[in-house]
Write a structure and sequence with these properties.
Elements lengths: L2 H18 L2 E4 L4 H14 L3 E7 L5 H13 L3 E6 L15 H19 L4 E3 L13 H7 L5 H5 L3 H10 L25 H16 L6 E5 L2 E5 L5 H4 L2 H14 L3 E4 L16
Parallel strand pairs: 1-2, 1-4, 2-3, 6-7
Antiparallel strand pairs: 5-6
Helix pairs in contact: 1-2, 4-5, 8-10
C-alpha cells in the first residue's frame, strides 16, 4: 500500500470515529489499542474513556504502561478487575476460553459506558486477527462492540507504520496476548502458573529478547523466541541464568522450541 493510500485509510478511520461521538476504548496498552486510543483522542478529545482490565493473566508491566500512557495524554482512564479465574469454566481452559473471557470483560465495559454516557465501545482487533482461531471475536460481535480497525481493513504492519508517524512508543512493541494463551487447551490454568509464566517472560525481556512466549506444559517451560536470537539464548551465561531463574520460578524442565516464535501456536492442537 502506498503512503497516499494509507493516509486515505487513516482519514477514513478518523471519520468513522467522529461519527461515534463518545466512546469507551478497551485499552490493553498493546500496539493496536494504543493506536486506536490515540486516534480517538485526536478526533473526539474529551469524549473518550479508556478502560483497562487487570487480572492475574495481565502482566503488571502492561498495566503500568496503560496507566502512564493515559496520564501523559490526559485521558480519563478506568481500571477494572476482570479476574478470569472466577469465570465458570475458564480455569479448565476449554477451546472457547477466550470467548468466556471477552464476554465477561465487555459486559463490564458496557456497564461503564452506560455510567459515563458513552454511546459506543470500540476495541483494537485488526484484519490479521481473522487468520487465526479467535473465539473472543464472537463475543465482540454478539455484544455489539465495534472494531474500527478491522472494519476499515487495517493490518498490523499498517498500524505500526501509522504509529511511527504518530511517534507512539508502541510502534515497535512486540505483539502480546494474555498469559492464559500459554497453556495447552485442557490444562488447568492456575494463578501460580500464570505468575510463573509472567516472571519467565519478563526475565527473557530483561535479557534483551524482543518477541517472547513461554508456553507451559505441566511443569515444563517451552521457550519461543525469534530464530535470529537462538544463538543468544544458548550462550553459556544466558543459558545458565535462564535455567537458574526458571527453576526458582517452579519449572522442572526448560526447553527451546526450534520453530521459534509462532503467534497462536497453541491453536495448532485444535480444528476450527
Amino acid at each position: 500500500m502506498t503512503e497516499i493510500e494509507l493516509n486515505k485509510k487513516y482519514e477514513k478511520l478518523k471519520e468513522y470515529l467522529k461519527d461515534l461521538k463518545r466512546v469507551c476504548v478497551a485499552f490493553s496498552s498493546g500496539v493496536d489499542s494504543t493506536f486506536l486510543l490515540k486516534t480517538a483522542i485526536d478526533v473526539l478529545k474529551d469524549n473518550v474513556i479508556a478502560v483497562t482490565a487487570t487480572s492475574c493473566s495481565f502482566p503488571k508491566r502492561e498495566l503500568q504502561e496503560a496507566i502512564e500512557f493515559c496520564k501523559n495524554n490526559n485521558i480519563k482512564h478506568i481500571i477494572i478487575e476482570s479476574e478470569e479465574l472466577k469465570i465458570k469454566g475458564f480455569s479448565q481452559n476449554p477451546t472457547n476460553r477466550c470467548y468466556l473471557c471477552k464476554k465477561e470483560l465487555f459486559e463490564k465495559i458496557i456497564a461503564i459506558a452506560k455510567e459515563n454516557m458513552a454511546e459506543n465501545i470500540i476495541e483494537g482487533s485488526n484484519t490479521d486477527d481473522e487468520g487465526d482461531y479467535r473465539p473472543g471475536l464472537q463475543a465482540v460481535k454478539e455484544l455489539g462492540i465495534k472494531s474500527p480497525l478491522r472494519e476499515i481493513g487495517f493490518n498490523k504492519e499498517e498500524i505500526r507504520e501509522l504509529s511511527r508517524k504518530l511517534n507512539l512508543h508502541t510502534s515497535e512493541k512486540p505483539s502480546f496476548a494474555c498469559l492464559a494463551s500459554r497453556f495447552v487447551y485442557g490444562e488447568l490454568i492456575t494463578e501460580e502458573k500464570l505468575n510463573m509464566i509472567d516472571k519467565a517472560e519478563q526475565l527473557l525481556l530483561d535479557l534483551g529478547f524482543k518477541q517472547v512466549r513461554v508456553r507451559i506444559h505441566g511443569m515444563m517451560a517451552r521457550i519461543e523466541i525469534m530464530p535470529d536470537e537462538f544463538g543468544k539464548l544458548i550462550q553459556d551465561d544466558t543459558r545458565k541464568e535462564i535455567i537458574k531463574k526458571f527453576t526458582e520460578y517452579g519449572f522442572t524442565y526448560i526447553s527451546m522450541d526450534l520453530k521459534g516464535y509462532i503467534t497462536g501456536s497453541m491453536n495448532k492442537t485444535i480444528k476450527y
